[in-house]
Amino acid sequence: MFRVDRTENRIARLAQRRFGELALRERDHLQEWLVHQPDALGEELLIIQKEFDGFDETRERLDLLALDKAGNLVVIENKLDDSGRDVTWQALKYTAYVSGLNKQQIVEIYQQYLDRYCGGGSAIERICEFIEVEELQETVLNPGNGQRMMFIAANFRREVTATVLWLLSRGIRAQCFRVVPYSFGDELFIDLQQIIPTPEAADYMIGISSKEVEETNVKGVQTRRHQLRLQFWARALERLRADGITLFANVNPSRDHWLNAGSGVRGCPFTMIFARDEARVEVNLARVDRDENKWLFEQLEADRSAIEARFGGEMSWLRLDERKQSRISYSRPFDGYDVDNWPEMLSWLSEHIRKLEAAFRQPLAQYARSIPSVDETTEELARVSESVDPST
């Protein structure tokens, strides 16, 4: 690896190091880095436990246990400078142990993790948000033989790589990541790369199982919830057209509990929600940059009185500091799964999505044109930092 000096237009080689010589430890350092940045492993993962030892009649403990976006359990085994000979055997045992975990057990394991390491929170809500479902009943956790393994080390012994390749050939999802520390002066860098399978090979192997995934999705669409949503949104779009509302003119019915339409501002859609116990309209501030979302929210909230006057009601303003996005919404309770309530729900949604657009389109567009650049945001943060009395 090289460091680029743009001023001198030169590159300088980084010094490759060993974890041992840097006094970095597996549990205290590498494991914690991954806990707080799991997408360093190339995908979104939800860490649900670390040092997990909830196995019957054994005191063994796996390093990290995670969920992927499909609800599969992922066993993550960390080593430092050397993978050792037995890491695959360890991971296979742990994967076999967790293969029998049901949904309730997974929720309990994650709740224990949140209570011990994260100051609490609802495991069910966080899993639903991660999997992107409205209710936990809509998804399967730890399905079939979908358990996965990830191995992380600076160097992998031949017996390890040979075993992983054999597992891959048998349709078992296993990955090896090489993690190497580098230094430049007092700065420390980590290079974390997937080496088995290579990204190209991984795409091919995922493609092999696409038929199975497609069949699973088709079965899911046939559930009563998905059918209800498709029917509801079809009727909702008909109602909007009849009422002369063109906001959702190019949107098709969906099996999701939400339906988005563009607001004219990238990453900030107007949304209708069809839930089991309510209907809701909302503005989602969901741009790629978290700071932009929070800045937009603050500008809109400063204009709250005028916006709510145009809308005609008091809204729910959720800055959501723990998340990237923010949300402003208005809701009414309904028994959404009772079809007899749909005419009233459709009338309510039609009326209030019109009000939402009228209240937010102009100020949202105005503030979006004034979003500070990265440099301006940095300068403002610096000014705030300099004005803070360090003794307070």
Concise synopsis of the structure shown:
The chain has 392 residues and is an alpha+beta fold. The protein has two domains: 2-216, 3-Layer(aba) Sandwich (Trna Endonuclease, Chain: A, domain 1); 223-373, Yope Regulator, Chain: A (2-Layer Sandwich), CATH 3.30.1460. The protein is built from twelve helices and 14 strands.
Write a concise keyword list for the protein shown above:
392 residues; 5-stranded antiparallel β-sheet; 12 helices; disordered C terminus; Yope Regulator, Chain: A; alpha+beta; 7-stranded mixed β-sheet; nucleic acid binding; Trna Endonuclease, Chain: A, domain 1; globular
Structure description:
It contains 12 helices and 14 strands. The protein has 392 residues and is α+β, with helices and mostly antiparallel strands. It folds into 2 domains: 2-216, Trna Endonuclease, Chain: A, domain 1, CATH 3.40.1350.10; 223-373, Yope Regulator, Chain: A, CATH 3.30.1460. The strands form 3 sheets. Strands 3, 4, 5, 6, 7, 8 and 9 form a 7-stranded mixed β-sheet that branches. Strands 10-11-12-14-13 form a 5-stranded antiparallel β-sheet. A two-stranded antiparallel ribbon has the order 1-2. Strand 13 (316-318) and strand 14 (326-333) form a beta hairpin. The chain starts with a strand and ends in a 5-residue tail after the last helix. Residues 208-213 and 374-392 have low confidence and may be disordered. This is DUF4268 domain-containing protein.
List the helices and strands and how they pair.
Layout: E1 2-5, E2 10-13, E3 15-16, H1 26-36, E4 45-52, E5 62-68, E6 73-78, H2 87-98, H3 103-117, H4 123-131, E7 148-153, H5 158-169, E8 174-184, E9 187-196, H6 199-208, H7 210-221, H8 224-242, E10 258-261, E11 270-274, E12 278-285, H9 290-302, H10 304-311, E13 316-318, E14 326-333, H11 342-368, H12 374-387
Parallel strand pairs: 6-7, 7-8
Antiparallel strand pairs: 1-2, 3-8, 4-5, 5-6, 8-9, 10-11, 11-12, 12-14, 13-14
Helix pairs in contact: 8-11, 10-11
